[in-house]
Amino acid sequence: MTLAVIGAGAWGTALALAAARAEQSVRLWARDGTQVQAMRETGENAKALPGVPLGSAILPTADLSEALSDAEAVLVVVPAQTLRQVLPQLAPHLAPLIPLVLCAKGIERDTGLLPSDIARETTANPLLSLSGPSFAADVGRGLPTAVVVGAQDEALAGEIARFMSSGSFRCYSNGDLRGVEAGGALKNVFALAAGAAAGAGLGASAQAALVTRGFVELRRLATRLGANPETIMGLSGLGDLLLTCSSAQSRNFAYGLALGRGESREGLKLAEGVPTAGIAAHLAVQHGIEAPIINAVTEILAGRLTIGDAVEALMTRPLKSEDI
Ligand SMILES: NC(=O)C1=CN([C@@H]2O[C@H](COP(=O)(O)OP(=O)(O)OC[C@H]3O[C@@H](n4cnc5c(N)ncnc54)[C@H](O)[C@@H]3O)[C@@H](O)[C@H]2O)C=CC1
Ligand SMILES: O=C(CO)COP(=O)(O)O
Which residues form the active site (predicted)? Predict the structure, then answer.
């Protein structure tokens, strides 16, 4: 099968490598011609995923037509906030039934839309989401993990899962597209919180309590956004929450860590939880859901609350039933 990967950042490159290991042929598109030239010359993506040879099954290209003309499926791997800009550029090159696998983890800041909602505004092609615990650096090096491919049409999700799976990349399928997307988008907000708690030296007990209560908020809000609560128990919800809330390898956790230590965040890598937190807080209000951790993250990011005050506010909320 020939796959196109749109976006040659860390995750796009890692997914291209995963597909190549699954014996697919891959066109890896980047908007930056100089980066493509460098990838062709050096055989690696030194900018986004250094030290991992791309191999002969991956063709880097800056030409969308070359990337998409013979693609049988397309993985869209650009940040959530740029999807609205990128997706319309693909449309003229796409045959109607080519599946689009959305791999961004975020909610659009200005609209509250998940990636598939944004895509639905510009395309009638079948939409899927690939999500789950998977650091680009791990997947790029061929370390083992399991992820999930979600689509309303679970048979199609299963087909894409089979094409992407290899001995080191195990893809499950799920018929709950919104659930798969919502878990991946929201877990980043809690990774910011967990990182901030670690940076502020609040201790391992606080971390565990925060992640557990964060999971309750995640499940509540995701369910209101249309997720099946069972999906949230899986790889794209609990699985990814556990990964990103426990490792400084996560860019969201690392961003939170810097916040908690009072360090500058300038120059840090993409942290999708930052634009997602505020809109998630807004959606929680809209759906009448209690989300004190999402609110605290939003207020801290906006500079309206210190971490000390957030801890006090969370700890002194009225006592209540555990309500999971
Ligand atoms: N890095 C990781 O471990 C994982 C990342 N993700 C998700 O994948 C998405 C992408 O993340 P990364 O690749 O890691 O980020 P990155 O920052 O490494 O790369 C983003 C890529 O998107 C490109 N891009 C940005 N705006 C664009 C535009 N308007 N037009 C064309 N290309 C554009 C950039 O040039 C860059 O190559 C995010 O939503 C992230 O949450 C998901 C799983 C793992
Ligand atoms: O989604 C990820 C792992 O599953 C990557 O998390 P970060 O974007 O926080 O690095």
Answer: 187 (proton acceptor)
